[in-house]
Amino acid sequence: MDALREAEAKLTVYVHPSNAADVRRAVARQLSTLLFSYEDRFDGVLLAHEAIVESEQGKILNGLVPYFGVPVHANLLLYSPKPDMMLEGKVEMLGKESIHAIVLGVFSAAIMSDDIHKKFKFKKKNGRGKFVSRSDQQHVIKKGSMIQFSVKRVDTEMNCHITGSLIPPHTGSMLWLSVHDAEYALEINRKSSRDINIKIEQHEQDNKTVNDEQGVKNSERKHKSKSRKRNFEER
Questions:
Q1: Cut 0.90: pTM above it
Q2: pLDDT tens, residue by residue, 188-221
Q3: How far apart are CA 65 and CA 79, in angstroms?
């Protein structure tokens, strides 16, 4: 997803003296208070972080409560949607005038009637509504559908609430797009291949780590065996 990005940041995290015994844990706890909230300095919503304390010799601030600043190098995962980006979401609610979806299981998005392509017609049966394409009855958007839509506006004051659109090309039901939209299907295949390569690399790295650890253990066993043999001979 284009809205997800990684970033590095040099930060100063202020820690209370009572946490001086475990600075790294205190820093992690402080950064965690920023999770899932929009931060102007990061230009996005913080989803995850990994902090490296560059020095445990912090600068003490003046005042009644002498917090000390700890220099930190942080790796951040951010949710930072921008206009015209493509996002994916799950439809949670829909009606004739709007479609409401959830992105990444957390962030809200709304697509109003003016931003729903005219090819879609709203139908309601047995109290359940859905949008059906006039050109292909198989292209259906209903509650629970996964959709791809374009970002129209981002409201950072509402924690990156999205106003989306289903008018641009390559938008609509992801299930339908995967079969009938060649460009979308190609992108999905490309991402799948990349994910498989990442998993293979991780598997190889895990095996290498296990083999290295096993090699160290075998070496230690041999060393201990030789030591016991030498001690026995000396006796």
A1: no
A2: 777 655 454 444 455 556 665 555 556 655 655 6
A3: 34
